[in-house]
Amino acid sequence: MFKEIVFTGVDSVRHFRPKGRAAVISILDYSERGYQPSLTDFAAVLMLEFEDVSDGSPVLFGKTLPDDAPVGQDRCPHNVEERFCTLRDARLIHEFVERVSNDPRVQTLYIHCFAGQSRSAAVAQYFLEKYAGKVADAGFGNRSTAAMNKRLYRLLSITDGNKT
User: Which residues pair with 110 in a beta bridge?
Assistant: First the structure.
């Protein structure tokens, strides 16, 4: 089980040297690919690519994003190069966290997105609530989950069977 769960931005992850004692979930979008840090020192890595767009976002021009859009139909209406997060992404996150939480080498779960305040915050908030009492340190420092991506948080809840 994790001793801490930490969410942060891409720049901070570049300085981490976990030496196999941590796992990382990396969430960037198509336009952020060039910022991907080296993640070779982590015991386990999940790399996802989806836009930081949430339900009700003004860039959607009033369109609703389907939760379980098939591959290829998961493109953002404001930019077809970008895809939005779906239940498929939430399931991948759950499977990864379940697997690494049982790995005795992994003490810390890092989650990073570009700025470290919305996609990564949603994942951290969700799993801190799920593992409440089992994680010694939230590792937030001065970070807040107030700006978390509510769509991603909601999809994580759905895929865990705890609909909110």
Answer: 6, 24
